[in-house]
Structure formats: structure tokens, C-alpha cells
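WARN  no MSA supplied for this record, continuing single-sequence
INFO  ligand: magnesium ion
INFO  echoing inputs
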Amino acid sequence: MRRISIFGSTGSIGQSTIDLIHRDREAYEVVALTGGANIELLAHDARQLGAKVAVTAYEDKLPALKDALAGSGVHAAAGEHALIEAADRPADWIMSAIVGSAGLAPGLHALKHGTTLALANKESLVTAGPLLMSEAQAHGTRILPVDSEHSAVFQGLVGEERSEVERVIITASGGPFRDWSLEQLAGATLAQACKHPSWDMGQRITIDSASMFNKALEIIETHEYFGFAGDMIEVLVHPGSYVHALVGFKDGALMAHLGAPDMRHAIGYALHWPERRNLPVARLDLAQVGTLRFEPPDEVRFPALRLARDVMEIGGLAGAVFNAAKEAALDMFIAQEIGFLDMARIVEVVLNEMSSATSLGNAALTLDTVLEADKEARARARACHARS
Ligand code: NAD
Ligand code: MG
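INFO  complex generated
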């Protein structure tokens, strides 16, 4: 039996992972499940899967979790330390599906134990890519990408020489505001930003898709995970989300990965890698799809894409600053304290402030320096809003 843990089990990716586990229940022993405020769901899944431990990120939720797990034999725990302890428990495969940079520390711990890390938490690669990749190498283990575009690129590279790759194209649905003018974007509401045209995801990544911050994070994720230079990575807007990514080779060939927009494909690929197994995803009927549309991205209306290039150029702690400023700006947009376009404006201000005040690019990358930069960037983002 394979021992598995799911970090962020109550979220969109976590639930899709659990769906796949249920379909082949006897093959897995569930070690740890972790969640946040949704205690009912966390306890329900932990009982049903017979997990050894269930962890809520919030300490004040521990009494409720203990109550919900009474008599089940599942150990209840809470807080950041408990998340680390859960990552330290021996497992063969861990799904990293916490949202935000909170997913970094548990992922790093899991790698130290040689556990295979299925990585949905793109923020870890953006904030501390070199740290994560070197940790995996040092402990002889693997990070398997779960973001759909990165899983697609990963699959496109099977059996290929990296040195023969000329470019990588990741697609973007364009989100709900693909056709909106700058003026319209300025007035975009929270409810409008939460409606994704093709993917069903958690609230934060859904809004990041509308602002294209999600794609900005994914450009950096591609750079950090595969090691391709920034100028080899392109973004193509593709409404419909059938083509997830394309790999271009030096003979001009483009290999595309197509599939229905269902994250269980990328999750299942990482779960069964290096094998392919039957997955419960819809088969694409291309005759019915009819036409595949592509258009170039617009970096004026969606400045996050331009900022991602700056981040790769600066390097070092710039990714941690970019991601944390974005997370803080997103919090403020969700709280309806700032407008839609203010998110990119604030992130740019913080990135500029911190790259001129400190030597972001040359800073040593450790968990401590990353967490420090993360904290400062969040504080600066809030201060930037308070000033305006
Ligand atoms: P979600 O909001 O649905 O779920 C997030 C999970 O993280 C929940 O279990 C929540 O309880 C937990 N969590 C939130 N804050 C936490 C904290 N501070 N500490 C510990 N746990 C915390 O998010 P999601 O859509 O499932 O996305 C999860 C990750 O996967 C993100 O990094 C996202 O970018 C990435 N991803 C998601 C999709 C998708 O289709 N949903 C696709 C590609 C990548
Ligand atoms: Mg993606």
C-alpha cells in the first residue's frame, strides 16, 4: 500500500485528489489530511479514509476538530507546527495543495524525508524555487508538477532532450475579463472576478486567473521547475482551455497537450507517474469543440504578466516578494478594500520599493530569508494601500 498525505485536503485540488483515492481505496494508506476552517469536511474525510492524523491550520479550531473526530482513532492537531509534524510523518507521496506561501514549509519538510511531492502549490516554486529543487535533488526525490500547464509540459518532455527545446508555451483561458477594457477592469467587482469561464477552482486562484496573476505565477513556475530561461517561455490566450501547453523544439515542431479542463488529469498523472492509468475525466470530442482559438496576451490590461518578467530578471528573493505582495493585495481585494487594478499597482510598488531598498537578486535563499521577505512584502503592500 502506498502511504499518502494530502495538504490542503479540503480545497478544490484536495477534494479532486480524494476523489481519485476513493476510486482505488485499497491501494492507499492515508497518513495525514490537512485543512483550514472547514472542520466538518476535514473530519469527514479523515474518518472515511482512516487517516492517522487530521490537522487544521488554525489553533482555535482544535477543540472543534477533536469533537468531530471523537472515537474515530484519528489524531487531531492544529497550527503551523502540527502541519510540519504531519509533513515529517513517513509517506511515499504527498499532495501539496495548500493555497499560498503557507504551503512552502510543509513541502520542504516532506522533501527532506525523500517523499515524492506532487506540487499544486505553485507559490512554493515562485517564492523559493531553487531551494525546493535543490532539496529534492539532495534527498534523491522528485517534485511532480500538478498545475495543468506544467503537467502538460512535463508530459511533452518525456523522452525528449531539454537541449532541443526552443520554447515553451503555456496557455491561459483569459478569465472572465478577457475582452474588458482598462476602464471596465477598474470597476470589476469581486463577484465578477469569482466567475471563471472554464475551470472550477478555489476562490483565490479564480481571482488570480481573472487578473492573470495566476499566469504570471505560472511563468515563474515554469522557469523555476524546468529551468528554461524567461525568454523561452510564452503565454498564449486560449479560451476554452483545451490545449494546456505546447513544447516547441528546435526543428520547429510543436507538441501540444490537450484535455478536458479537469484537474483530475494532472493530479492522476502525478499520482500514477511514471505509469498512465485510466482516469475518470471526460474524453475530448474535438469535432464537437470544432475550433481552437488563440490570441496574444495583453500586458497593458494585465500587467501581472510584465511583472513576472521583472521577477525572473531580478531573481533571488524577488519571487517571494512578488507572491507575498500579490497575496496581500488579493486579501484586500477580497475584503473589497481596493479595486481590481489596484492589485497589480500595489504589487509593482512593493517590488520596486524592495528591489531598490535591498539587494533582492543577490540575497541568500533560505526558508528564513524567504519568510522574512514574504512578511515585509505583505506589510509594504498594506502600507501602500493605506497611503493611497
Ligand atoms: P482552495 O482555496 O480550494 O484550497 C486551499 C486549501 O489550503 C484548503 O484546504 C485550505 O484549508 C488550505 N489553507 C488555506 N490557507 C491555509 C494556511 N494558511 N495554512 C494551511 N492551509 C491553508 O485552493 P485550490 O484551488 O485547491 O488551490 C490549491 C493550490 O493549488 C494553490 O496553490 C493553487 O494555485 C494550486 N492550483 C489549483 C488549481 C485548481 O484547479 N484549483 C489548479 C492549479 C493549481
Ligand atoms: Mg494552471
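The pocket of nicotinamide-adenine-dinucleotide (ligand 1) is lined by residues 8-14, 35-36, 57, 97-100, 102, 120-123, 147, 199, 201-202, 204-205, 263 (CB under 6 Å).
INFO  checksum written, moving to next record
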